[in-house]
Amino acid sequence: MKVIDKFDGKNILIWGFGREGQSTKHFLTRCCKPAKVEVFEGKRDGIDEDAFDYIIKSPGIVMEEDHPKYTSQTEIFLAAYRDQVIGVTGTKGKSTTSTMLHHVLSHCTDKKVILLGNIGEPCLDYYDEVDENTVIVFEMSCHQLAHASTSPHVAVFLNLYEEHLDYYKTFDKYFAAKSNVTKYQKPGDFFFVGENVPEIETAACKRVLRFADTPEYQLKVLGKHNHYNANVAFLIATQCYGADPEKVKESLAAFDGLAHRLQFVGEKDGIRFYDDSISTIPNATIQALGAIPEAKTVLIGGMDRGINYDVLIAFIREHSEYLYIFSYDSGKRIYDQVSGPENCIYIPTLEEAVKKAKEITPKGCAVVLSPASASYGYFKNFEQRGEMFQAYAGLV
Fold this sequence. Notes:
Blueprint: E1 11-15, H1 19-31, E2 36-40, E3 54-57, E4 70-71, H2 73-81, E5 85-89, H3 94-108, E6 112-117, E7 134-139, H4 142-145, E8 154-157, H5 165-168, H6 171-183, E9 190-194, E10 205-209, H7 225-240, H8 245-253, E11 263-268, E12 271-275, H9 282-291, E13 295-300, H10 310-318, E14 323-326, H11 328-338, E15 344-346, H12 350-360, E16 366-369, H13 382-392
Parallel strand pairs: 1-2, 1-3, 3-4, 5-7, 5-8, 6-7, 8-9, 9-10, 12-16, 13-14, 13-16, 14-15
Antiparallel strand pairs: 11-12
Helix pairs in contact: 3-7, 3-8, 7-8
């Protein structure tokens, strides 16, 4: 009996109808034989739970407790294919690491490799494409993991910093959601975990990843942190899938990186522009400034989710060599807390901030969009924010 046979003849509600909710409806039509499928986009108290056998919740909808009627795309997919899944989570670096892994395994093994999940590809879109020779690289957000009761065969927890406190309210709850990536692993599974991640009980074979011990790789992508991400890909490819170490290194050297992640997007009037729109936490912005050659002006700010910006504020106070332009709600909060340096400016919108950056950045230097904040409320997503940055700079 297949895992999904339980949906046959059942009444199913899809709670949330964004990209993943629409994918879920398509999956149920394509792969299952439910009696009824309905869609609901309101609050939980508007759901008649007695009318449905299963309720498939979209990630990002707040629900405090687990409930037997509620499930998710992630849980359905892991229940069927967890033995073939590499799950990658962490506050930062998970998109780059997942993409590196997909790139390396595709070039250095004979496996069919699929990249899906939080990277923008709903997992159930690929449900019927998995065969016994398939390896799935699954980028897993905290929202996708929050109510999971199954963990992948290979789990990666890269790092942990404050994030999504608007959703989880406390750091402990955020950590607990991400911890599900390994919580239900079994003996014979693998767990790769960053040294700043608190202890988690796991049955898997565990390897702690220490930033200071990271080897230097030949990479096109910028930043010391990307050597850490590359090392994760190297270890998994060689230790879990038997890939040839030299071929893996060659594959990593050919990796071009992600759009909107430390991406050089062009030069205009002697000023270089870098799009790091995927940056949503303070540490990512600090790393960007350390990675980009001749970085001079950085654009910071977006949705204020209540995270702690002390580390970025301390950096700004200590690094007067940069020009800082703040925008939107989080930018205003940081600007007010920094309080007064001449190299700090508050400008309400990204369009105005880019215009100002072009005026004040010396020729031969770089302007970096690295917001340390989410895009929501001002842009559809971080991709649109990056695209608008490039448009305002006159590069597209």
